[in-house]
Write a structure and sequence with these properties.
mainly alpha, 0% strand
């Protein structure tokens, strides 16, 4: 499937290049318009990535990470005070999961929107698991 998509894209690019150099004046005009629009999209994507990197560097996600760390610590304190060992084991496992996710985040800063979405989903899942521990 991947190769079929690549082949299709290559075919389209070939047609556009051919029309740009050897096509009729109308085909040349259409090819030039497509190349211009493609360039504009590329510039927009680059600008978006630069803006997101600046936001990330400015600490956009730091608050969420700090809040999650704080919530886990508060839950651990409550469990320690309760003396319930089963809750403590569940919370330790949850703490380990969150540390793995945070370590992964800090070592391999997510670059794409999909990676950021996955990180946020992982954080939400941890918070839901913690909520389930305390509500059951």
């Amino acid at each position: 499937m991947k190769n079929l998509i690549k082949l299709g894209l290559l075919l389209i690019a070939g047609i556009l290049v051919y029309n740009y150099f050897y096509g009729t004046p109308t085909e040349k005009e259409k090819s030039e318009k497509i190349f211009t629009e493609f360039k504009e999209v590329g510039v927009s994507v680059v600008n978006l990535m630069k803006e997101e990197k600046e936001k990330y560097d400015g600490g956009k996600y730091d608050e969420a990470i700090d809040n999650m760390k704080g919530a886990v610590e508060k839950m651990k304190d409550k469990i320690d005070k309760s003396g319930d060992d089963s809750l403590k084991d569940e919370m330790d496992e949850l703490g380990s999961k969150s540390r793995r996710i945070l370590d992964k985040w800090e070592k391999n800063k997510p670059q794409t929107e999909e990676e950021k979405s996955n990180f946020e989903a992982d954080m939400k899942n941890i918070l839901k698991e913690a909520e389930n521990i305390f509500t059951n």
